[in-house]
Design goal:
This protein has about 170 residues and is mainly α. The chain contains six helices and no strands.
Length: about 170
């Protein structure tokens, strides 16, 4: 179990280092102030102004940094990606930002799911066995009741029309 924790910490440290290296490269070309995730709208405005000029000159580097930062927040379930959605619209335009954020949200959620399956499942089962058992019973009950409801009420009624008129048994 401790190997899994070490693996998760290693993945987090490697992702943090990669993101830091990308942002350090951008900071070297910018006003030499450190880049950080915005926590309110004022910081978002300042960050958008600082990145707008850089984005015009180095679109690929700015896009790579934005994608890395967005995936970092989504993959490790760090709150605050909604401000990055607004930043994407400010930097890349509303439609490009929308498509970009939609794709990055999907990929980041997939990474989060894979990370939690690979590293978190055993911890949750070990530390919360009663809650896991309760949740499993509820899910099983829901699945069984859903399957039972989808059976036709009689031989005349198709599955998609169980309550249609004239289908009395």
């Amino acid at each position: 179990m401790w190997r899994r924790l070490a693996g998760l910490l290693l993945a987090f440290a490697a992702s943090t280092a990669a993101l830091w290296l990308l942002s350090a490269r951008l900071s070297a070309g910018q006003a030499r102030r450190p880049l950080r995730f915005p926590s309110d709208l004022e910081e978002l405005r300042e960050l958008a102004e600082a990145l707008r000029d850089y984005e015009r000159q180095h679109r690929g580097a700015a896009l790579a940094l934005f994608c890395a930062a967005y995936l970092y927040k989504q993959s490790f379930a760090i709150p605050g990606s909604s401000l990055l959605n607004v930043l994407a619209g400010a930097l890349f335009g509303p439609w490009t930002g929308l498509v970009l954020c939609s794709a990055l949200t999907s990929v980041g959620a997939t990474f989060c799911y894979l990370l939690s399956g690979a590293f978190g499942k055993q911890f949750v089962i070990y530390y919360f066995p009663d809650k896991v058992a309760l949740l499993q019973r509820k899910v099983l009950h829901h699945i069984i009741s859903s399957v039972c409801r989808q059976e036709p009420f009689c031989h005349k009624s198709p599955l998609w029309m169980p309550f249609s008129p004239g289908t009395r048994c």
